[in-house]
Design a protein that fits this description.
The strands form 2 sheets. A 4-stranded mixed sheet has the order 1-4-3-2, covered by helices on one side. A 4-stranded mixed sheet has the order 5-8-7-6, covered by helices on one side. It contains 4 helices and 8 strands; from the N terminus they run E-H-E-E-E-E-H-E-E-E-H-H. Helix 2 crosses helix 3. With 178 residues, the chain is an alpha/beta fold.
């Protein structure tokens, strides 16, 4: 007689980090996922449409993996793959949020990057034509990073100047209503 297999559902992949909250914040900005659980030394993010999430736990003895590894190096135990519609834009966004492109890029339709604590992750597209792996120039990454940061900046003038559909008016309540 065999015991029936219980239902198992992947809830989350857990990444160790020197500081769980800091690494979770990187992935929150990268993916646009929100935290659903935040505790000292533990954070869990879930995608807005449901599905398995990513969790982060503080591990004081964390050692970053080496990729690609050589004998004796700290090996990565796993890596995350994220499909993107535009590889260059995906890399630029990841770099602007704090990722670093790996020097070695093994495929033309995949980019290997490192999160701020050294976990490798991949961005890939599935509709690319096979060919040579294009180089990622540091100048291109810097240019893309500057462009994304410039788009995200809110100047003081933007914050106080009303848009075309907004009424101009005082920002503070008047003294009579206080």
């Amino acid at each position: 007689m065999t015991t029936p297999r219980p239902t198992l559902t992947l809830s989350s992949t857990v990444l160790d980090a020197p500081d769980a909250a800091e690494l979770a914040d990187f992935y929150r900005r990268l993916l646009g996922w929100e935290p659903v659980q935040e505790e000292p030394d533990w954070v869990k993010l879930l995608p807005p449409g449901g599905g398995a999430g990513i969790s982060f736990q503080t591990e004081k003895a964390y050692v970053a993996p080496v990729w690609p590894a050589s004998p004796g190096d700290q090996l990565m135990m796993l890596h995350l793959d994220f499909e993107v519609t535009d590889l260059e834009a995906g890399v630029a966004h990841a770099v602007a949020e704090g990722a670093t492109p790996a020097e070695f890029q093994p495929q033309h339709d995949v980019r290997v990057l490192f999160d701020p604590v050294g976990h490798p992750f991949c961005l890939f597209v599935t509709d690319q034509v096979p060919g040579e792996t294009p180089a990622i120039s540091p100048e291109w990454v810097e240019e893309q990073t500057r462009d994304i940061k410039a788009q995200d900046e809110l100047t003081a003038a933007d914050a106080v100047t009303p848009g075309p559909h907004e009424k101009a008016g005082p920002m503070e309540p008047d003294a009579a209503s206080a």
